[in-house]
Amino acid sequence: MLPSRNSVLLLVPVLILIAGFSEAAPPGSRIDKLPGFVGSFPSQHYAGYVTIEGKPGKKNLFYYFIASERSPSKDPVVLWLNGGPGCSSFDGFVYEHGPFLFHSGLTPGSLPILRINPYSWSKVSNIIYLDSPCGVGLSYSDNPINYATTDLRTASDTHHFLLKWFELYPEFLSNPFYISGESYAGVYVPTLALEVVNGIEKAAKPLINFKGYLIGNGVADVVFDGNSHVPFAHAMALISDDIFETSQRTCEEKYYDPPSSSCVANLAKVRQALVGLNRYDILEPCYQSPGTSFSNSPEFDIPMFPGKRKALSTRDSTSSGSESQPYHVPCVNDVEATTWLNDEAVRKAIHAAPASVAGAWAICAVRVMERYSSDTDSMIPYHLNLTSKGYRALIYSGDHDMAVPYPGTQAWTRSLGYSITEEWRSWHTENQVAGYLQGYDKNLTFLTVKGAGHMVPQSKPREALHFYSQWLDYKPI
């Protein structure tokens, strides 16, 4: 029997939808409802685990995937990684560029109220939020030994995750693919990017359509990053001329590796002047998590990167905490995310393991932080390798971040030696100066965001979506 005219008309929108976006997601991964949110999602959401081999046992890596609200079949797929090392990418999901804005619940301790985020990066891209390495956020292992990892091990594991993820979502394999992140992801992103490129060159299957990467306020090099804090503090009127000049003279501009006891003494004066400052955004107050108080301890210290590169969120080595105690990043309010992601109804809705299996969610995981080892040095050779092969790179900095100050990032991008293709200029949103940029040969761009802190999309969401969408679309910023 032929279908009726009405039946045919009803089929048309469905056929159009299938033609625009062919869904082949793994069974049970689709999310249709979330506690705290009322209404329909602007696009399709999926979440679950990808399991890779550990040594011994298994590593279960949790992801939350959001299809683009614009054109999921054509828009880029972007992987997002928060830093730490050991911090959850739900930091980006909840507080930066995820699909929802999280508002405090009606009563203390109640679930947050979710509203649509008008500046979500899923407006123009498909985006994967991955809790990496294993043990971070909702990712877990059946053997705690797998929580011990390194930079290179993390890159390898995440590459294996990507290969399996694209097998689960083959409809996105032809989309342009980008890797993005912030803070210690300044290490995660280029090391992973090189893993992906090496896999492409070896014809690893499935073949990822990798195009480039974005890094926000990312650590890169102990000398450039470590030498930027004191000049930045002086330029921002956080230390006096006297403190700056004596530090400059006694340290011989080697703040990252103090050459003398007098240099160490003067850097102590710098640190003392900065105690209590929100190092992630010097314009914002320092939030104190419940049960904590203002402290002069190294928890609130400004890292100067002496010797080996340091993590940005790890606790003081003399801390007496344990893995069972939640870790709160100094000055950062994580209440909404902690409340939401430790609710068992939320975990069930997003297909995450219960706390009895995966552990309680914390913005940064002590079980990883205390076992993490850095086994890489400067990221500059990675950037040279990747950009020389034609991969695009956008390096952006909130210009009021004290954790990874922009002068160090500007200096190392310049040190690559590429010719300038676009002279230093302002860029704009809504006819207002939003920051400054400089373009280089080899598809490299350095960009600042005016008034933004360490987490740029949290500080300046409108501006962040603007440069993100323009760059992904190959349009001038």
Automatic annotation (TrEMBL):
This is Uncharacterized protein.
